[in-house]
Amino acid sequence: MPDPRKPLLVFSTCPDDASADAIAAALVDERLAACVSALPGVRSVYRWQGLTERSTEVQLLIKTTADRLDALTARLQALHPYELPEILAVESRGGLTPYLDWVAEQTRDHD
């Protein structure tokens, strides 16, 4: 059985700073993410509806845990302005144990 506290890094791009900031704040406030880093000025080239598109976006790096991924995905999709937002989760192979513990604690449901 997979470790529910397994740290994940979720990638998502946003069209602008305002949407990136709103999404980051909601995910952290709702304990779906421990931290969200926003990297402005990302240049993306992708195919959409049969055309090659180019855009400047804000890349979000979302730190969470495996047990929060489904809820994070649903919330990110609901908040996101794109019809088909990038939501790509990558498992961590390791890291500084106190930091990984902090990620797990910050995303723990505190009902």
UniProtKB/TrEMBL annotation:
Looking up Pfam families in the UniProt record yields: CutA1 (PF03091)
One GO BP = response to metal ion
Molecular functions (GO terms): copper ion binding
Member of which family?
Answer: Belongs to the CutA family.
Protein name in UniProt: Divalent-cation tolerance protein CutA
